[in-house]
Amino acid sequence: MHNGFFRVAACVPSVSVGDVAANTSSIISMIQTLERKSVELAVFPELCVTGYTCGDLFHNEALLDAASEAVQRIAAATKGLRITAVIGAPMLLRNRLFNTAFVVGDGSVKLTVPKTYLPNYNEFYERRLWSPAPTVSPGEDGGQMPVASNKLFFVGSVCVGIEICEDLWAPIPPSSFAALAGAKVICNLSASPDIIGKYRYLTDLVRQQSARCMCAYVYAAAGFGESSTDLVFDGKGIIAENGTLLGATPRWQESSQYIIRDIDVEMLAHERLHTGTFAECATRNDKSYAAVQQIDVNLHELLDPDASEELRERLKGLMNQENQQQEDDEDSRRLMRYVDPHPFVPSGDREVDARCDEIVNIQVAGLARRLKAIGCKCLVVGISGGLDSTLALLVATRAFDKLGLDRKGIIGVTMPGFGTTGRTHSNALTLMNALGVSTCEIPIGPAVEQHFRDIGHDPAVKDVTYENSQARERTQILMDVANQENGIVLGTGDLSELALGWATYNGDHMSMYGVNASVPKTLVKYLVRWFALRSENPDMAEALVDIIDTPVSPELLPPTADGAIEQKTEDLVGPYELHDFFLYYTLRHGFGPERIYYLAIQAFITQHNTGAYRSGGIMEVGQYSAATILKWMRVFYRRFFSQQFKRSCLPDGPKVGSVCLSPRGDWRMPSDASAAVWLSAIDHLMETL
């Protein structure tokens, strides 16, 4: 395991039905190839040693003897290798024949796990050939049954479980019990033929089982070479992790193929820790799984006080050797999975469209419910011509339409100040007029200047007082207008600003309902574009596109001589795409600075250099150096901790995603917590540059 990632492969070798020698050579060749790619666990299809479609030949002595010898030959071929493989072959035991998964590594067979559920319908008549897995109760036979389905094994420190094909389709798959017993990776050896619509259903089944069990699921199914007498096998290699499809092999290939992905074991451990129902379900589980064999060594063994000194030294040597091999191996350092630079934004236009539709509906439903609950028919919104206030206004109009209210009940207030530019002012007016809301313009300059005189502040000193006085004046105006009109103030601040504390306390920080409170900045752009693409008003669509292209700014400092925005938020606090990346992995998965930094390097540097990053849309991936990433990571943690007091008193707002900072349920953190541990970790990382 490297940096908390565990490398697995789903393998689909080309087979020749009944030609055990050819199949064995193919499997060994693939194992050797995967070893060079630093794969730690390789999963092969069901009965791949013989071919799944041998039929009654499975009851022939010659085939069974050849298969038994082949398993031993494959096991012997793993001697001295770091890889562990799971292969499928028949196993004759006590006058019963089992469809079995063999775990092989370091020169021998480590474990045998038979198929639990045997199909006996339509094209499958497995009960004619095979016996189901023996049922073994906890403690029965001392856990020494030669074959049993309730067995787990370890590869290093990673616990792995096995099920075979039909097992996944059972009402309660064996993998459910395996996961509850500690397995973080599930292997499925399959020989599932293709019929219309089955592939999509199966892919969803694999993905959902990985989500339900909070595990990784490696599925390998038979492909080209199986008999086509009655069925056709398309060859499916699928790897999923906690509900996400990490990758799949192309189907209908004549040659052998495989797919490799790195499994985030640390993330899975956090998910299980953070989700109380997982541990609760495990304690109520009556079916025990016994971990009978540990294939590779792990650090925990070194700390075992009962281990002999000789064993401890041997394990240390093996551990050092393994670590050195990983350091010397190029593939060990290159992460074999895609790390999305914009984790809050789905990939693909269809996915973005569906996600935006769902988010907007959540926002609209939340706001409509609040308005109806308090009997309010008036909303007051400050419109700056920026992204956040634009999204809030668009959501407000939909909420009014949903309730059958006149849009004139929405009062859009534009409040030009010292930093307002003609571009943002014009876009604000165009947007309000196009949406048919009430428009009000109240310049704040004279009132703020009077305030400066009252408190004795020199307006030539453009410090935090200069800036925050404007923000609080705007909020005061909105609140007072809401009082006049018997309405409420709609907040516009987004999740990213809340994380950084980029809001003036009791200024734009405050409202009666924060409709954007759990929408990150990187996603706001896509939501505004979603509205632009659906707008039938060309002037409004043009204004929305220009708003997307406008630099993010509070516009609290005077513009440049040519009227352009002087104060750009991302120049001051850093790129929002980096901060959203840090925020996602801090809150969603509980990762520390070292792990987030490693992922950021993959997302923003390695994938850029290899051309693997996702491009297009309205947000290209930025290019950063390692030092730049650490610089803004330090800013993120410093601000995230120091600004918690602003989040402790947030207005209500709808939760739209898995990451939210509401103090009422999603994020509870003391306002005086220290960031020392996190900042120290970043300092250590900086020393390594």
Give the helices and strands, then pairings:
Elements: E1 5-12, H1 20-36, E2 41-43, H2 61-77, E3 84-93, E4 96-105, E5 108-114, E6 120-121, E7 124-125, E8 151-155, E9 158-164, H3 174-180, E10 185-190, H4 198-212, E11 216-221, E12 237-241, E13 244-248, E14 257-264, H5 265-274, H6 276-283, E15 290-294, H7 299-302, H8 309-328, H9 330-333, H10 349-374, E16 379-382, H11 387-403, E17 410-414, H12 422-435, E18 438-441, H13 445-455, H14 464-484, E19 488-491, H15 495-500, E20 513-514, H16 521-534, H17 538-549, H18 569-573, H19 576-587, H20 593-610, H21 626-642, H22 644-647, H23 676-687
Parallel strand pairs: 1-2, 2-3, 8-15, 9-10, 10-11, 16-17, 16-19, 17-18, 19-20
Antiparallel strand pairs: 1-14, 3-4, 4-5, 6-7, 8-9, 11-12, 12-13
What report would you give on this structure?
With 689 residues, the protein is α/β, with parallel strands linked by helices. The protein has 23 helices and 20 strands. The protein has a seven-stranded mixed β-sheet with strand order 13-12-11-10-9-8-15, covered by helices on one side. A six-stranded mixed β-sheet has the order 5-4-3-2-1-14. It has a five-stranded parallel β-sheet with strand order 18-17-16-19-20. Helix 21 (626-642) packs antiparallel against helix 23 (676-687). The radius of gyration is 30 Å and the shape is elongated. The model is unreliable at 137-143, 292-308 and 321-328 (pLDDT under 50).
